[in-house]
Design goal:
This protein has eleven helices and two strands. By secondary structure, it is mainly alpha-helical.
Length: 339
């Protein structure tokens, strides 16, 4: 029979004050567990974007006409609200799944030995972005799907994906000082790529706000701009991103860069090609809902791919352990690693 330690009053008080510290004191996750927890949070960040797109594309944006409850009289959807109410309420419930995934990532990062404070902070950053976006999503409903608030909602989701991607990558690195793997000129080229990608995503939200998919079957305001004109601007930015990626691959080959940056640049280029095909097909077929949803998924993959290229330009080794004669006066907490 497994011995269960007796919970003292001090343990109970400590658990109330800092439950994460108590969990960390009794559990040490394997590094792969921490990596999988961070990956789960990233996957859920993408899923919530795709399901949010499904809400919009099925015209279910006001399926629950108020917030934080679904109706004035019911916390949940009712049978009278039909398909649209179920879609909108289901997307709201997925926010709790996302919170659970982010919470798991925070707990795993906090319990890892040695404790990596920076990794834990990235997990908490995800949590607060999720909370902020949940409130913003409620505002979107309360203002009747105003296109500018919808655009801000998507941009904040992109910020969540960015933090989740960085967290996942950091779980597979050490906490040593970053060491660049390529020269300054290559790093500057990648920052141009990142900037162009941000503009591409931002203009994409304008395309959505001006396009025909308003998000609900009722009369919903649209951004007062010619949809085809802004779509062409979006396509130009997409070609700029593709060109920069292609140029980056050639530069990396020319300078004999390490395999990591080369592989990630190649992966990004392939994702961009697929996304471009989907984008042109949906444009010439008058934006069928299935292709628009697939394009939203592709935009998440492009953003993740760009960030992974950026993060591949440096390496972060593990911190070297202190020698006994250098740490004889240190406390056990200080030896455990960076705080």
């Amino acid at each position: 029979m497994v011995h269960v330690p007796k919970l003292t009053r001090a343990d109970a008080v400590a658990a109330l004050r800092n439950p994460l510290a108590l969990i960390a004191a009794h559990w040490t996750p394997h590094p792969r567990t921490v990596q999988r927890a961070a990956l789960a949070a990233l996957v859920m960040a993408v899923v919530i974007v795709v399901t949010g797109g499904a809400v919009r594309l099925t015209g279910s944006g006001l399926g629950c006409p108020t917030w934080p409850t679904c109706t004035d009289d019911s916390l949940t959807t009712t049978s009278a609200m039909g398909f649209h109410g179920a879609i909108e309420f289901g997307n709201r419930m997925l926010t709790y799944v996302l919170c659970a995934a982010v919470g798991w990532a925070i707990v795993a990062a906090r319990a890892e030995k040695p404790w990596r404070r920076g990794l834990t902070r990235l997990g908490w950053a995800q949590f607060w972005v999720v909370m902020g976006n949940a409130v913003l999503g409620g505002i979107v409903v309360l203002v009747g799907l105003n296109p500018y608030t919808v655009a801000a909602h998507f941009l904040l989701s992109s910020a969540l994906i960015a933090v989740a991607t960085v967290t996942w990558e950091r779980t597979r690195e050490g906490d040593g000082a970053p060491r660049p793997l390529v020269g300054k000129a290559v790093r500057q080229l990648v920052w141009f790529l990142v900037t162009a990608s941000v503009l591409l995503i931002a203009v994409g939200t304008v395309v959505t706000g001006a396009g025909p998919h308003a998000g609900d079957s009722s009369e919903v305001d649209r951004i007062n701009i010619n949809w085809e004109t802004v779509s062409k601007l979006h396509a130009v930015l997409a070609w700029i991103v593709v060109t920069l990626t292609f140029a980056l691959w050639f530069v990396l080959k020319a300078v004999d860069a390490p395999k990591g940056p080369l592989d990630r640049t190649r992966d990004l280029f392939l994702i961009l090609l697929g996304q471009g095909v989907i984008g042109y097909v949906q444009y010439f077929t008058h934006l069928p809902e299935a292709l628009v949803g697939l394009h939203m998924f592709g935009s998440c993959l492009v953003w993740i791919g760009v960030l992974r290229v950026l993060l591949s330009l440096r390496e972060r080794p593990a911190l070297e352990a202190r020698l006994p004669d250098q740490a004889y006066a240190a406390t056990s907490s200080s030896i455990a690693g960076p705080r």
